[in-house]
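User: Before I run my own analysis I want an independent prediction to cross-check against. Here's the chain; please return only the structure tokens and, at the end, one sentence I can use as a sanity check.
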Amino acid sequence: MQVHYGISSYKNIKNPVITVGTFDGVHFGHQKIISRLCKIANTINGESVLLTFDPHPRSVLFKNQSIKLINTLDEKIKLLEQLGLNHLVVYPFTKSFSKMSGTDYVKQHLIKELNVHTLVIGYDHHFGNDRSGNIDLLRSMQEKENYQLEEIAAQEIDEISISSTKIRTAINSGQLSLVKDFLGYNYFITGEIKHGDGIGKTLGFPTANISLSNNDKIIPKHGVYAVKVNIENKLLDGIMNIGTRPTLNNITNELRLEVHLFNFNESIYGKRIQVDLIDIIRDEIKFNDIETLKKQIAIDCEKAKKILQKNQV
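Assistant: Structure tokens:
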């Protein structure tokens, strides 16, 4: 898959079959659309193209609203690469871009820049200033601008919308096995390993502290999770604590993402990490003293090992 940041590298694409959307989560509904896109492209000897936007349009149009994402852009790219998509166009979303009329958007971007042959779009897709553009406008311009139009059925679009809502709810509540059912893959977090305060090591359970690559990423509820970790293609098992560490009197109430890796003692500071959250073990709670916390962590580790053993691929 070729990734185009803007359209400067988007050249000589043969019979582009295009769909448009944020595709946050790249879940089963999105995967179905990409599959259809690729099938049409193969039929007409063309190439499949997804036009997406960065930053998320809602974060630009509604700055006072908190936008939480299932995937960061880099995570989305990684997932889309696995689906057989030929091209991903990441277009910068700005206020000025949002003010373009629906007609100008079609002519300038879909026709002139992307040279669309076939557009695959949902019945409820809106675009342009005040969301004035829709599938009716696309139909009215189709003959003159000489492109094919395929509408994604209302039922499929509604299923995608419902799925996205359910996924976010399940992530927020820590229902990771349910999230996997919706996504088709384990929910994961990516970031860089940074230095912490070393408290985990003094407890006998050294941890890797994770700095998120994007603070708009949805983080599951505070608790302890069984996880699988990828560091430079090395796969490891462990547990992850998400929370504010109340037993350690964290007066700043700072959210920490800390992973303890089983049977591992290498220096990994500064390295990129992917943490697949397999299942929740327990909620984060405040213990009466450090000794009780240490005993509970040992219990958590044993529970995590059993969960991970059952989830071996």
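Sanity check: The chain is about 35% helix and 25% strand.
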